[in-house]
Amino acid sequence: MAEVEHVLEVHNVIGEGPVWHSQEGFLYWVNFIGQHQILRFSPQTRRIEVFETGMPVMALGIRKTGGFIAATARGIANWDIQRGSFEPFCDPLAGRTGFRFNDAATDSEGRFWVGTLNDANPKGPDGELYCIQGTDSCELMDRNITVANGIGWSPDRRIMYFVDSFRYCIYAYDYSTEPGTIANRRTFVQTTPEGGIPDGLTVDTEGFVWIAYCGGWRVVRYSPEGKLDREYRLPVANPTSCAFGGKRLDELYITSADLGLSEEDKRKHPQSGDLFCLRAGIAGMDEPRFGG
């Protein structure tokens, strides 16, 4: 079985939300607690660039027209790399103290789906799921969620997967592509605290779902029926998310975090917060572009 490779030493407090930009050949991800950063890595040149954002940025989506859409501490915004600026787009959390965005993903029709949580009570059912589209549309799609996390779609776009972290649950929804609606929320995989907290996810071309388990030292691949297919152990406790990249989209990049680790734990596991890669002979799907 393939082994996980240590790719890059970055020591992110929380490295999250990896997105592969196939046109550029770069991997982007965020580091949003303590250090407010967006990172860009070229596997070809091994060059890493760090963009200081001046505020927490929790997730990114690639825009069709260039640049990115971003879930930030000040709402949903368009990020212009050259200018280093964030242009406000919409903010469904305006005025709601203690709430923030978390993970996000773009669907095949160019909509940006983003989840939320209540930082003051992350285990409470206050999280929500929003769908952002057009120039000003921001629609609430679901609620009664703890920490809203990884989002992904089956290759045929009939199912949307979504992580409810502190229920230790991955949901599946019936997904309708054209109207962009979800229905029939059900349990796809139910896990336990002993295995770590389910965090970010991605879906491969065979319809299998990959989940990073924060605190679980592992990334797991599940069949479309929700059965454990394979498990890969990491040398760090807190893998946070994963995304396919590379020229053939067959390199699974895995972000991680050192948040919550003691200084002794960091000495024992010095790669905590770093970037990893798994080459398992399986390909993912190209990242869709936000249509706004």
Q: Report mean pLDDT, rounded to a whole number.
A: 96
Biggest sheet, open or closed, and with what strands and sense? 4 strands, antiparallel
Main sheet: strand order:
1-24-23-22
Number of helices: 1
What is the H/E order? EEEEEEEEEEEEEEEEEEEEEEEHE
Q: What value does the Rg take, in angstroms?
A: 17 Å
Low-pLDDT stretches are none
The CATH class label is Mainly Beta
State the helicity in percent bands.
under 10%
Number of strands: 24
Oligomerization status of the protein chains: single chain
- CATH H level, superfamily name: TolB, C-terminal domain
- CATH fold descriptor: Neuraminidase
Overall structural class, as computed from helix and strand content, comes to mainly beta
Question: What is the name of the CATH architecture?
Answer: 6 Propeller
